[in-house]
Amino acid sequence: MTDASPKAARRPGEQALAALGLGAPALSPADASPHAFPGGGRWRTEIPSCEGPEALAVVLKEASRLDVPIHRISQGSGIWMLTDAEITEMVDATAERDIELCLFTGPRGTWDIGGSTRTDSRGGGTRARGHDAVAGCLEDAVRATELGVKCLLVADEGVLWTLHRARVAGIIPADTTLKVSALIGPVNPAAYAVYEQLGGDSVNVPSDLTLDHLTEIRRVSAAPMDMYIEAPDDLGGYVRMYEVAELIRRGAPLYLKFGLSKAPGIYPYGHHMRDLTLSTARERVRRGRLALDLLARHGADGDMAPLGSRLPGTLQRFGIPS
Fold it and tell me: Which of 41, 35, 39 is nearest to 222 (CA)?
């Protein structure tokens, strides 16, 4: 764990509102997260829903054009939806730019034959149903890491624990990072701490958590947090760009995920959705530029973690039975 003193940043409209007698109370230092990424910095960036080599090329080109720094690129359809050649192409392209590539393990319940996910309650959700589904996720993990992927996206607690045990046992590389999906994101500090203990190296929380919720989480866990600054519609469609500086102050170390609302879903991706996928990939990068511009205007853009950094630091884990 690395401690850091957050820099003071200007809140949106602060000076103008104060001149009108509408100034807000001073921020409380007690609300601020004391944590940072190892190696320095309180925030990193992530471009999600990058579904294959062609979308990745669009993201990298647009990021260069708009000068958007990227620490991590993630994919949502699943490792099994990519050929070995496609995975290798993505690994090579991200490695050349020192960007972490994160691919989703599967199968998961929303796409298999389980009827409960079609009910109003969405019972079971994205979790891996039964032994064979867990086995499929482990198969995905071994295949991807053998091809050079260093980060795996997980949407099941049992799969998370299994993959953590697998890296401790040397079945997958020890420096593989495990990212907890927004589809099962914890909504309280006790649950967040459990995901850390199960092996989560970054934990995606729902984008509707309040600022106080983030402070509560940071009082029990220093595990890196992921949050959609703009969430897809199926995750609420929330847009929190004007809160970015305060989200960092409360939630650091924090991955800023640049999602996209008002866009059709693209999972599981195939070439029949090519045009939509490429256009939305390009727009996610632009959304990132908008959020970073806001950070700069508010004087809160100085604590970005070094590009190329990816490890989470020392985290708390449950003991593994012998």
Answer: 35
